[in-house]
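Summary for the steering committee. The consortium agreed at its last meeting that each partner would contribute one worked example illustrating the joint modelling workflow. Our contribution is presented below. We chose a case with several input lines so that the handling of multiple components could be demonstrated. No manual editing was applied between input and output; the record is shown as generated.
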Amino acid sequence: MSTIYDQYETVIGLEIHIQLNTNSKAFCGDDAHFGGAPNTHVSAISLGHPGTLPRLNAQQIKSAIKLGLALGSEINSVNTFDRKNYFYADLPKGYQITQDNQPFCRGGSVMVKTINGERAIRTHHIHMEEDAGKSIHDLDPNHSFIDLNRAGVPLLEIVTEPDLRSGEEVEAYMLAMRQLVRYLDISDGNMDEGSMRCDVNISVRKKGETTFGERCEVKNVNSMRFAKRAIQYEVKRQIDLIESGGKVRQQTLNFDPETGVTSPLRDKEDAHDYRYFPEPDLPPVHLSNEQIELWKSELPALPKELYAKFTKEHQLSDYDATILTEERPVAVFYQKLAELNGNYKAVANLMINKIRPYIQEQKIHIQEFPVPVNSLSDFIQLIVDGKVASAMAYQRIFPKLIETPNETPLSIAEQLHLIQSADEDFLMTLVKEVIEKNPQKVAAYQKGKKGLIGFFMGEIMRASKGKADPKATNQLLGELLRK
Amino acid sequence: MKIDKSLISRIEHLARLQLSDTERTQIQGDLNNILEMVSKLDELNTDGIEPLVYMSDTVNSFRPDEVTNQVERSDALKNAPDSNEQFFKVPRVM
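What follows is the complete predicted structure of the assembly.
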C-alpha cells in the first residue's frame, strides 16, 4: 500500500570522523591509543599551557593522503591549518586545530552496493583535525569530570556529497569506509570505541524535485544501527511536519539511542560562531608530486580491486568474493593459498566454510592459523583429485589437521581409512548389496524414476563410510541398474 | 568596526564570561581603543600583497610518530582550579 511517505525522497550527506591509529597525537608526542587511566596521555601541549607550540605528526599526513588516493581524490599540494574557536571544558586551548580553507583532499568517491545496484557516493573533501577531550557527567552531581587523554588525537573528517538516499545506504557506505580504512591500516574503524563516528545531514523532498529541502544535522551517531534509527525517525518527523503545513528549520539535533528520538540542541548552543582564522603555529605542508606518487605506489590492493580479480580471474561468485575481501588479512591468505593450489573455488570453499569460522571462533588472527599453507593446499588436492570425499575431508581430516598440523593430510586420511577406492571388487559388493536390499526402488527406477539414483548413491556412500569413489560408483551403479 | 553593547554581550556568551555593567563599559572602551590603534594600518595601501600568516618561511616541519614528553598525571592536574586524583573538575556542563 502506498502511503504519503512514499511520495518523498530522503537526501543524506555524512560527515564521518575517523580516528587515526598513530602512536602519538596529531601535534604532540602524547600516547594516542584508546584507553589508559584518565589524564595519563597528556603533556603541556595537549593541556593547552601557554607558551607551548604544536608540531605535526608526519604519520598522520601519510594516512590522510593514503585515504585520499584510495578514494581517487585530488591531493592538495599546499595545505594549511586553521583554528576553530569555541569554549568548552574538554577543549583546553579554547580552539580546535582543523582545516577550513585548504583540506588535504578534494573529490573522489566510494562505490556502494545498494538495492538499486552499485553507486558512486562522492566525497566533497577530507580534512585533518584534532579530537577534543572527554567530558563525564555522571560521576558527580555538581561537577563534570574532564579526561584529556583523547585531546589532540588525530582525526580525518570525510565529508560526502548529499548522495545517499536511505539508512541502508548509509550503513553500506559506513561499512565500505570501515573496510577501506582497515585495508589501508590507517584506523581500526571500531565504532564502539569511537574510532569512527558520524554526523548525519538529513533532508526530504517530493520525488522528482531537483532542489534540496532544508536539512537537519544529527550529531554524534556512534553506531550504524543508531544511524539507521536516527534517519528513520528524522525522515518521518520532517515529512509529518511538512504534511501538516509546517516548515523544516535548519537545526542541529541530538539522537538519544535510549528513546530513539531526535531533539534539538538548545538554540544558544546552536548559535555557533567559530571565528576561524589561520593557525600561525603550524607551518604549511607542501606535498610534491614525487611524494604523492611514491605513496600511491605503496598502497595495498584495495577491496574493489581484489573483488574484481576474484570474480573475473578466479571466477568466484559475488558471495564468495564479497566474504573473502571483507577483511584484508583473509583476502591475503586466500590469495596465497589460491596461488599455491590453483583450484580457486575449492580454496574459497575451504576459506569460507572452515578457516574463517575457525579463526573467528578461536578469536585468533589468521596469521596464527596453525596449519601451514602448503599443507592446506595438499588437503584441497586430496579432495580435488577425488582421493577423499569432500564431506569426509571437512568433517574428519580437517579437525585432525588442526590438532596435529605437522602431519600430512594424506597420512591423516590413511590413518582414518578415508582414501576413496575405485577398486571394482570393493565397489561391486557394495552396489550389489544395495540393489538386493531395495527391489521395489530398483523396479521404480527401471520404470523411469531416474531421480532414485541419488538414493542409491547415498546408501552406497553410507555403507562405504565415504570411501567409495563417487565417479566409479556412479558408473557401476548405472550399468547394474540398467540390466 | 565599532564595539557596541550588543557585540560585548555576544563575546561574553562565546567566551562564557559574565561581566558586571562597570566591566562592560570599561571593556567596551578598551576594545574600541585597540581597534582604533590597529586601524592606523588601514592607511597603508596593501593592494596585491599576500596576507602574512607565518613569521618564517619554514614548511613541512614534522616530528616522527613517537610517544614522548608526556607528563605525570599529578603534575597535569596540579595547576587546575579543581580536580580529584584522576580528573579535572569543572562546573557541571549538562
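The CA atoms of residues 108 and 295 of chain A lie 17 Å apart. Chain A is about 40% helix and 20% strand.
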